[in-house]
Design a protein that fits this description.
Blueprint: H1 5-9, H2 29-34, E1 36-44, H3 50-59, E2 82-90, E3 93-101, H4 112-133, E4 148-153, H5 162-171, E5 177-181, H6 189-205, H7 222-234, E6 237-238, E7 245-248, E8 251-258, E9 261-264, H8 273-282, H9 284-305, H10 314-350
Parallel strand pairs: 1-3, 1-4, 4-5, 5-6
Antiparallel strand pairs: 2-3, 7-8, 8-9
Bound molecules: guanosine-5'-triphosphate (GTP) and magnesium ion (MG).
Keywords: Cell cycle, Cell division, Cell membrane, Cell projection, Cytoplasm, Cytoskeleton, GTP-binding, Membrane, Mitosis, Nucleotide-binding
Subunit structure: Septins polymerize into heterooligomeric protein complexes that form filaments.
Protein name: Septin
């Protein structure tokens, strides 16, 4: 890792300071005035630390003085989709952040069901937005569309699993995927680099579309350009999460205590957690724009093609269509049988001395 990284990704002020108020320097003032509405989702195999990470990411971290209900030290297995919304204000800039935690899937081969609820959730938010957008009160639509999805990849495998490939492909036209390697503390630096490369190769090989950070505009300052380059080079971010505050170097830090030392979550030398958060904050607006211009547009045009039929009922519709087709086929077969019978009758009746002797049907 390069020597400059710590200064670039370290939290500048209090531990609870995220830094999105600095956005005016980097993004348009317009959306800063309006405030941001942003939804982040986490998806991946069970036990990879999704719930732990999102707790570290914003919900508890942001309010060190407040007790957040549900953010207990020990996180239980997530069993249903849970969306929590926090409204944060930093230096007059408002952010309404929703974090959608999803139940991790297991090793079962038939995981279509767990895919389905997550995909339906994404579609439902599009659906709701479309509905609100075509309503009368268009000025005050609450945007709950999923703007970004952290896809958790196991550090224990040798790359992507078939399920990862299938899942990412199932959602890549609906949401901005940011791949992350979970539990990076279980990997050596060499192993991390190898796994990162492998995952990127496999993403390419399987034509999985992940979110691409746009290059910094030429008029941005050099620091921001350098930051963007570093962020790009870090994908897939390898992260560590923890809900424990540990004494290290005389202060309390979020970390994981091992016999040989402490892995600090917010130490860029230890893992990419801060890079991931910086990426999210500095690219919040771009993630929103891609959601609107690409994913939502996809959804909308699909809906129009279906003549307004709901996308969320896709599978149900497929079954229904199949049933209808079968019924139609049966009707046609019956019709053909009737026509054949009639032709036979005509043949026998109209051409009496042709010597055809058949039974009347
Ligand atoms: N080594 C290590 N363990 C972690 C890390 N993050 C979380 N864990 C541990 O992994 C276990 C599972 O964490 P969870 O956050 O519940 O995982 P999850 O992905 O939300 O799991 P499901 O809710 O079942 O999908 C817990 O015991 C965590 O303490 C990490 O970065 N490194
Ligand atoms: Mg969980």
């Amino acid at each position: 890792m390069s020597k400059q990284q710590p200064t670039q990704f370290i939290n500048p002020e209090t531990p609870g300071y995220v830094g999105f108020a600095n956005l005016p320097n980097q993004v348009h003032r317009k959306s800063v005035k309006k405030g941001f509405e942003f939804t982040l989702m986490v998806v991946g195999e069970s036990g990879l630390g999704k719930s732990t990470l999102i707790n570290s990411l914003f919900l508890t971290d942001l309010y060190p003085e407040r007790v957040i209900p549900g953010a207990a030290e020990k996180i239980e297995r997530t069993v249903q989709i849970e969306a929590s919304t926090v409204e944060i204000e930093e230096r007059g800039v408002k952010l309404r952040l929703t974090v959608v935690d999803t139940p991790g899937y297991g090793d079962a081969i038939n995981c279509r069901d767990c895919f389905k609820t997550i995909i339906s959730y994404i579609d439902e938010q599009f659906e709701r937005y479309l509905h609100d957008e075509s309503g009368l009160n268009r000025r005050h639509i609450i945007d709950n569309r999923v703007h970004c999805c952290f896809y958790f990849i196991s550090p224990f495998g040798h790359g992507l699993k078939p399920l990862d490939v299938a899942f990412m492909k199932a959602i890549h036209n609906k949401v901005n995927i940011v791949p992350v390697i979970a539990k990076a503390d279980t990997l050596t630096l060499k192993e991390r680099e190898r796994l990162k490369k492998r995952i990127l190769d496999e993403i390419e090989e399987h034509s999985i579309k992940i979110y691409h950070l746009p290059d910094a505009e030429s008029d941005e300052d050099e620091d921001f350009k350098e930051q963007t380059r570093l962020l790009k080079a870090s994908i897939p971010f390898s992260v560590v999460g923890s809900n424990q505050l540990i004494e290290a170097k005389g202060k309390k830090v979020r970390g994981r205590l091992y016999p040989w030392g402490v892995v600090e979550v917010e130490n860029p030398e230890h893992n990419d957690f801060l890079k991931l958060r910086t990426m999210l904050i500095t690219h919040m607006q771009d993630l929103q724009e891609v959601t609107q211009d690409l994913h939502y547009e996809n959804f909308r045009s699909e809906r129009l093609k279906r003549g307004g039929r709901k996308v969320e009922n896709e599978d149900m519709n497929k079954d229904q269509i199949l049933l209808e087709k079968e019924a139609e086929l049966r009707r046609m077969q019956e019709m053909i049988a009737r026509m054949q019978a009639q032709m036979q009758l005509q043949l026998q009746g109209g051409d009496g001395d042709s010597g055809v002797h058949g039974h009347h049907v």
